Amino acid sequence: MECTKQQNSEVARLLAQIQEEYESAVLGIKGFAYGAAQHQVINQKMTNIYLWQEELETLVGEDAAITLVDQELRACASANPIFFANERNTLL
Fold first, then answer.
1. Which of 49, 65, 76, 86 could potentially form a cystine with 57 if both were Cys, beta carbons 3.0 to 4.6 Å apart?
2. What pTM was computed for the model?
3. What is the mean pLDDT of residues 74-84?
4. CA of residue 49 relative to chain centroid, distance
5. 8 A C-beta contact, residue 29 and residue 37
6. The domain containing residue 25 runs over which residues?
7. Number of structural domains, the chain?
8. 63 falls within a domain
């Protein structure tokens, strides 16, 4: 039981980290930091998301990790309309 709690806690931590990186990257493109963020910084944020997803895969498997990350990014975008790239609600 304790192992499951630790794993759930680690999954939650990784998803929070992914959300933070995504929000930071999008704000660098469209938000308060528009014009101030450099391409290299945004690229690093997206690379970090990939690395966190890989770590998540070690805990829950590849398919589950992809699903969790997709759900997290969509939830983030739904709560913050600035994160949609266009009128079709395509995520950045």
1. 65
2. 0.69
3. 71
4. 6
5. yes
6. 2-83
7. 1
8. yes
Does the pLDDT value for residue 23 go beyond 60? yes
Looking at per-residue pLDDT, the higher value among 92 and 17 belongs to 17
Token pair in block for residue 25 = 């990257």
Residue 26 included in any domain: yes
User: How far, in Å, CA of 18 to CA of 71, rounded?
Assistant: 11
CA dihedral angle for residue 29, residue 33, residue 39, residue 42, rounded to 10 degrees: -70
Query: What is residue 34's predicted lDDT score, i.e. its pLDDT?
Result: 53
In a domain, 88, yes or no: no
User: Domain for residue 33, yes or no?
Assistant: yes
- Location of structure tokens 């945004």: 42
* Burial grade of 9 (CB within 10 A; 0-12, 13-18, 19 or more): exposed
